[in-house]
Amino acid sequence: MKKEEEKYINPLTDFGFKKLFGTEPNKDLLIDFLNEIIPNRKIKDLNYSTNEHFGKLEIDRKAIFDLYCIGEKGERFIVEMQKAKQNYFKDRSVFYSSFPIQEQAQKGDWDYKLEPVYSIGILDFKFDEHKEDQDLLHVIELKNQKCEVFYDKLKFIYIELPKFKKKASELKTRFDKWLYVFTHLQKLKDIPKELQERVFKKLFEVAEIAGFSEGERKEYEESLKN
How far apart are CA 42 and CA 46, in angstroms? Predict the structure, then answer.
């Protein structure tokens, strides 16, 4: 029996993720999602920056982010979608976060004031050390021995998608709805009634494969193979 063709793109492919969240016309989708997961900050606008960064020394490795954005107040956002489990993923996140910190350095007389940096990982796997933990959203920042926040301008945010088990009828919050999109989009044939909101209607419109150009279809097929 021939496999039924998908109507909507898989957002957990490289092409699908960047198609939905990595272009200027669709940045309102990314802004809406980020506003649901970043605590105590309301993003009104952002600009995409180059996702390739190089260290100053030849021995430094090149860092390539999925998405790299700068907010209207200068804050930096690294947004990565990670399909497969990778050794030292947390180490890589820390390494990547050093680039948007270093690029803020100014020549001449500079007081070292930095804008906030957020490293966000959307993961299609569970951390081994958190497998039994029911929490799927992890927000990490630097704290002292009293568990008081020592520095609030560097945050690491991870979402473990396999822990999300809610059905459409169980969606309560906007955060729930975004996780449902990430985990179910490519399986759907129509927009569920729980997602009949402007931002999600636009996402489904952008995600519909029938609207792709021939080149986009080929790119998407290659991304699925990879």
Answer: 11
DSSP labels, 160-222: EGGG----GGG--SHHHHHHHHHHHGGG-SS--GGG-SHHHHHHHHHHBGGG--HHHHHHHHH
Q: Does pLDDT of 121 surpass 90?
A: yes
Q: Yes or no: say if 159 and 122 are a contact pair by the CB < 8 Å rule.
A: yes
14-21 vs 27-37: helix crossing angle, rounded to 10? 100
User: Global pTM?
Assistant: 0.90
Is the CB of residue 22 less than 8 Å from the CB of residue 66?
yes
Q: Are strands 137-143 and 149-160 parallel, antiparallel or unpaired?
A: antiparallel
> Can you tell me which residue has the tokens 């680039």?
99
Amino acid at 23: T
Count Cβ atoms below 10 Å from residue 146 Cβ, excluding itself.
Answer: 6
CB 49 within 8 A of CB 69: yes
Cβ 4 vs Cβ 53: under 8 Å:
no
